[in-house]
Amino acid sequence: MLDRSYVGKKLPLIRYQVDASKIRELALALGDDNPLFTDKAAAQAAGYPDLVAPLTFPSLFRFWGGSAAGAETRALLQEMGANVLRILHGEEQYEYHALLHPGDDITGELEILSIERKEGSSGAMDMVRTQATYRNQRGETVVIARATMVVRE
Description:
about 35% strand, Thiol Ester Dehydrase, Chain A, 5 helices, about 150 residues
């Protein structure tokens, strides 16, 4: 059972520099051949300043394997009592205020909104709901990401 005293806790700000190679890499991983994600000239011809990041790109901000933010998120989940090998990504929704492009310097703050215990067919699990607000280098909110992680015992 996760420690519910973490509800309302905000993690320290993270920084993420949006990079064209990561945009292309995610598009490749998704199997999405939209040229807006891979071809700067095509993106500019469509009226954008540079490549456009796929809509699920903000998942990288906290969970990219080798990042400090990813390590921090895993460490917090372990502090809460989670076995990180038993975590499933339940759902995620994004509220976009602006698109993400290479060169954007993103800062983000994640808050734990709730922890709810549920019984499943294979045993108990905790549903951890979070909200992250991401701002660009001008301090403008670009994306609000709401997610649910399922932590199985």
